[in-house]
Write a structure and sequence with these properties.
protease, 302 residues, 12 helices, Rhomboid-related protein 2, hydrolase, transmembrane
Length: 302
């Protein structure tokens, strides 16, 4: 009987362990606040920590969590992208909001194979979007994921990962789809997702709270919809429209799974002292140099 009782208690522990930890965290937060109930911002930070950090570093985050500086980078870049979209949708010629062609193809921001010598286009293409579904999907994903990431890791780290994905996206497109235009912030968005999901895979049991699987499925649905739209813009546009490359999605994801993973997994460590970061940077720079060489000497667009 004693053995059966022990077995029953052991089987109950996994189900109650999370609740016990949450209760202990709640009690610690009350003690830190002089016996008062935790404030709303503390509760928000606790929820964010469960989604963004493995268990062993959550307490370190909660001890120093604050909203200063606020998530300025991801909000600012989202507002700029929205403003550029509205500008081309309202004040530039186009057929309809769903298929913006004439306006954006003449934009000085879009990546154009014929204008690769204008190097800023390898980054500025992220500001221009091909339609309502395109920009809404990108904005939803980068705000839902980017704001919590920036609350935890701050703007300089999130900005590094985001821009690494943007540059990787345009360079990959110039190699694998060298004659096609490129628009949208999907390279940066997929870099954030790649870095986050690599951390989730490595620390799956610790980083996904209740109903986490359902939420991940919703995110996957949005990703599938975004990729489907990109494939449509690439392969199924009419003859009088210009197809848009989708290589940035894949390249941005790989940038996130390398650089993004090392950045987001070094919450309580010095990033520059982590050898994984320098390995990822070296691999990224090698691909960058090859892409530059390809564009100068080997590209069919020449």
């Amino acid at each position: 009987m004693a053995d059966a009782h022990d077995l029953e208690m052991e089987s109950m522990n996994p189900n109650t362990e999370t609740e016990m930890k949450e209760a202990m965290e709640e009690e610690e937060m009350r003690e830190d606040g002089g016996g008062k109930a935790p404030s709303k911002d503390k509760k928000v930070h606790r929820i964010v920590s469960k989604w963004m950090l493995p268990e062993q570093v959550r307490r370190s985050y909660l001890d120093r969590a604050n909203c200063f500086p606020p998530p300025v980078f991801i909000i600012s870049i989202s507002l700029v992208e929205l403003a550029v979209f509205i500008y081309y949708a309202v004040w530039k010629p186009q057929k309809q909001w769903i298929t913006l062609d004439t306006g954006i193809l003449e934009s000085p921001f879009i990546y154009s194979p014929a204008k690769r010598e204008e190097a800023w286009r390898f980054i500025s293409y992220m500001l221009v979007h091909a339609g309502v579904q395109h920009i809404v999907g990108n904005l939803i994903m980068q705000l839902i994921l980017g704001i919590p990431l920036e609350m935890v890791h701050k703007g300089h780290r999130v900005g590094l990962v985001y821009l690494a994905g943007v540059i990787a996206g345009s360079l990959a497109s110039s190699i694998f789809d060298p004659l096609k235009y490129l628009v949208g912030a999907s390279g940066g968005v997929y870099a954030l997702m790649g870095g986050y999901f690599m951390n989730v895979l490595v620390n799956f049991r610790e980083m996904i709270p209740a109903l986490g699987i359902a939420r991940l499925l919703i995110i996957i649905l949005i990703i599938t919809s975004d990729i489907g739209f990109a494939l449509y813009r690439r392969f199924f546009v009419s003859a009088n429209e210009s197809p848009v490359s989708f290589a940035a999605h894949i390249a941005g994801g790989f940038a996130g799974m390398s650089i993004g993973y090392t950045v987001f997994s070094c919450f309580d460590k010095a990033l520059l002292k982590d050898p994984r970061f320098w390995i990822a940077i070296a691999a990224y720079l090698a691909c960058f140099i090859f892409a530059v060489f390809f564009n100068i000497f080997l590209s069919p667009a020449n």
